[in-house]
Write a structure and sequence with these properties.
By secondary structure, the protein is an alpha/beta fold. It has 3 domains: 85 residues, Winged helix-like DNA-binding domain superfamily/Winged helix DNA-binding domain (Arc Repressor Mutant, subunit A), CATH 1.10.10.10; 113 residues, Periplasmic binding protein-like II (D-Maltodextrin-Binding Protein, domain 2, 3-Layer(aba) Sandwich), CATH 3.40.190; 96 residues, Periplasmic binding protein-like II (D-Maltodextrin-Binding Protein, domain 2). The strands form 4 sheets. A 6-stranded mixed β-sheet has the order 4-3-5-12-6-13, with helices on both faces. The chain has a 3-stranded antiparallel β-sheet with strand order 10-7-11. The longest helix is centred in the N-terminal third of the chain and has 29 residues. It is elongated, with a radius of gyration of 31 Å. It starts with a helix and ends with a strand.
Length: 306
């Protein structure tokens, strides 16, 4: 037995309205089309649902017995159709995203908030761990999307690489604020916040300082770019940090200037290579990549596959 959804809709409309003519108007169908749909439904189920006799038309007892079930069936089909549309649009489901500290404070929160405004039924779980831990989680499919420093420490992952151009941050009243760009020579004798653990950004800066024969004071170090920014906001220290933190508009008295020669922070967005992202996660992934592109040196960004 095969019952078409349209036949159920016609049956429900006829029962609810009490006549073929009103049901036809409600469904934007002709009266003959409604009559044919009812006849086809009766043929499918094997018994009469309406009495027809010389202008007399009325539901049978069997029709009333089926009325509630058919109405519930239509409601269930409607819910299934709605859920299919939500899944297709990425407006339902759950996303687990993990990041290292660089992206956790000033970059991801506003993006997640913007995504949620259009996808309020999507549940999002954000975790902050080391790049190595994030990569392990993505590799084992415990996490949908990971944001980490390069190099990617685990094989078998899809990785989209972004070469972010770092900036020099300082308090708005700093003497260097009058300059349009900052060079290694400008840092001579200044307090510059270091990034803990011989970070790639600090290694590049140290190389440039050595080449320019410039000495700086390194009495403060921080594990997070965001903390380095906060230190610059609170005193007379400078910091060379990634643009997601350096260019964040926080009204905290911090300004940023380009630093030349360029210093790069290479970031990777990683996903499992053996499992495509769901619609919801794919939408967030696209939002993240679109937000990062303006901050990159485009010539050194691209895709990699482990």
């Amino acid at each position: 037995m095969h019952i078409k959804q349209r036949h159920l809709e016609v049956f429900d409309a006829v029962i609810a309205s009490g006549s073929i003519s009103r049901a036809a108007a409600q469904l934007n169908l002709s009266q003959p089309a409604v009559s044919i749909a009812l006849a086809n439904l009766e043929e499918s189920i094997g018994f009469k649902l309406f009495q027809r006799d010389r202008g007399f038309f009325a539901p049978t007892r069997e029709a009333f017995l089926l009325q509630d079930e058919m109405a519930q069936g239509l409601l269930a089909l409607s819910r299934v159709s709605q859920r299919i549309s939500e899944i297709r649009a990425g407006s339902t489901g759950s996303i687990r995203i993990a990041t290292n500290g660089a992206m956790a404070v000033h970059f991801l929160p506003p993006l997640i908030a913007a995504y949620q405004r259009d996808h309020s039924d999507v549940n999002i779980d954000i975790l902050v761990r080391s790049s190595r831990q994030v990569a392990d989680w993505v590799s084992s499919r415990q996490i949908d999307i990971g944001l980490i420093d390069t190099p990617v420490p685990v094989a078998g992952l899809n990785a989209k690489l972004f070469n972010l151009t770092c900036v020099c941050v300082m308090h708005q009243n700093d003497p260097l604020a009058v300059k349009q760009t900052i060079t290694p020579a400008d840092l001579a004798g200044r307090s510059v916040v270091a990034i803990t653990g011989q970070h790639m950004v600090d290694r590049q800066l140290d190389s440039l300082l050595a080449a320019a024969d410039v000495t700086v004071e390194r009495h403060i170090s921080s594990y997070f770019f965001a903390i380095a920014r906060n230190i610059a906001a609170a005193g007379n220290a400078l910091a060379i940090i990634d643009p997601t933190n350096g260019k964040a508009n926080l009204s905290d008295g911090v300004i940023w200037r380009p630093f030349v020669p360029r210093i790069h922070h290479e970031l990777a967005i990683i996903t499992p290579s053996d499992q495509p992202l769901g619609q919801a996660a794919a939408g967030l992934y696209d939002l993240i990549t679109q937000s990062l592109m303006p901050l990159t040196d485009a010539s050194n960004s691209g895709d990699a596959h482990g």
